[in-house]
Amino acid sequence: MRLMEDELFPSTPGKFKIERAHTINRQFHRCFASTSTMFLWALFLIALTASYLSFQSFVDTSSRYFNASWGGMHWEKQIRASATPRRPGGVSVLVTGAAGFVGTHVSLALRKRGDGVVGLDNFNSYYDPSLKKARKALLTSHGVFVVEGDINDARLLAKLFDVVPFTHVMHLAAQAGVRYAIENPASYVHSNIAGLVTLLEACKSADPQPAIVWASSSSVYGLNEKAPFSEADRTDRPASLYAATKKAGEEITHTYNHIYGLSITGLRFFTVYGPWGRPDMAYFSFTRNILQGKPITVYRGKNHVDLARDFTYIDDIVKGCVASLDTAQKSTGSGGRKRGPAQYRIFNLGNTSPVTVPALVGILERHLKVKAKRHVVEMPGNGDVPFTHANISSARTELGYNPTTNLEAGLKKFVKWYLSYYGYNPRSGGGATKASKSL
Ligand SMILES: O=C(O)[C@H]1O[C@H](OP(=O)(O)OP(=O)(O)OC[C@H]2O[C@@H](n3ccc(=O)[nH]c3=O)[C@H](O)[C@@H]2O)[C@H](O)[C@@H](O)[C@H]1O
């Protein structure tokens, strides 16, 4: 085997060879010297890149910190102040979806009687976020602090429970709307399944564990034909993905109740309407179109049967929500472990008197004093059910729930609010022209 030395010092001695050997030797040292210089340069470049990257990450972290909509001592102080009850025996409630329709009303009702309330809302653009901002402004004016954040943000939830020992969670954040699920199915999984689980994980780990009251839906009855709908009826035939995610929510909350001892109350809301309502709902969009002289599409069921809903006025729903909070027993777990069986309830919150969609349009025409341009079409197969009708005897017995507002009276209040909020200008129905400060 030839050694490297043999290459440099060939076996036959001679001047040339010796000189050549010296030359090679010099080249070797030069080469070695340049390699070590390169090595130093490489080291220098690596160090430079590393300092640049760590500086970048420092800038990123700092800007995230400074741009974050939550966190910091001032923020924590605001959260604590908002969560502190102002009456003896008052409760401290985290309301998710607080800038939503039901969330705003429930938060205000709790605040007005002296409970501590902190709101959480992601202000997504499913419908006009300016309406959500106006609701937030209303809450702020009543001393309710609303955090801008998502129920999927586990860090934020952990922080909120770290700052405040909430006694209750009123979980109203959700992707609502029956027919929109055809367009954006993932949003239902994101909010109604993944978001719910993230919230329950935070609640289960919180110390103390809060009692949870949350919004299920009348839509879980799906293709049920037995009327009125009772809590014990079948709910395994949902007609829309929305309904399926709400039904899944009932199963998921049951699991957390069973494993971790979380106190759970699920409320099946029946087509809730009223002031500060949701623009995607029929009564709201019909009002806008009627005032703008645009046609409205009225769906009709099979064999020309009118569709009907057990429309429920917001004030009645709020009473049901508050009564649910008041009658909720404490969760039994701690440190993420169940210590005993916990309460699990499901209630219908409806009005018990279904009204057909054409009759709803008739009431709106009277209150608005404008005739609607009705465009009647067959109900598309996109998740709608022909009718809903609540049996509310359980809620009556256990919550003292007693709805008192019929559709005629409720829509009168809605129209009054609509005109005060959007103004009489028929072109302004899509955006706020003035924000009312009262309900
Ligand atoms: O109780 C619930 O669990 C749900 O209530 C609500 O759903 P729905 O009862 O479907 O209300 P909503 O859309 O106002 O349609 C009312 C009627 O108008 C008909 N309808 C609707 C739109 C239209 O353009 N034309 C029409 O005839 C339509 O066919 C229907 O017959 C909530 O949106 C939902 O989030 C959920 O909470």
UniProtKB/TrEMBL annotation:
Q: Where in the cell is it found?
A: Golgi apparatus, Golgi stack membrane
What would be one Gene Ontology cellular-component term for the protein?
Golgi cisterna membrane
**GO molecular function: any one?**
UDP-glucuronate 4-epimerase activity
Q: Which reaction does it catalyse?
A: UDP-alpha-D-glucuronate = UDP-alpha-D-galacturonate
Signal sequence annotation? none
Q: What region holds the NAD-dependent epimerase/dehydratase domain?
A: 93-330
Q: How does the protein's chain sit in the membrane according to the entry?
A: Multi-pass membrane protein
Q: What is its main location?
A: Golgi
What keywords is this UniProt entry annotated with? Answer: Isomerase, Membrane, NAD, Transmembrane, Transmembrane helix
Give the E.C. number(s): 5.1.3.6
Regions crossing the membrane: 31-55
InterPro entries per UniProt: Epimerase_deHydtase, NAD(P)-bd_dom_sf
Enzyme class name? isomerase
**Out of the domains of life, which is the source?**
Eukaryota
> What does the sequence similarity comment in the record state about its family?
Belongs to the NAD(P)-dependent epimerase/dehydratase family.
Q: Which PANTHER family match?
A: EPIMERASE-RELATED
Name this protein carries in UniProt = UDP-glucuronate 4-epimerase
- Which organism's genome codes for this protein? Musa balbisiana (Banana)
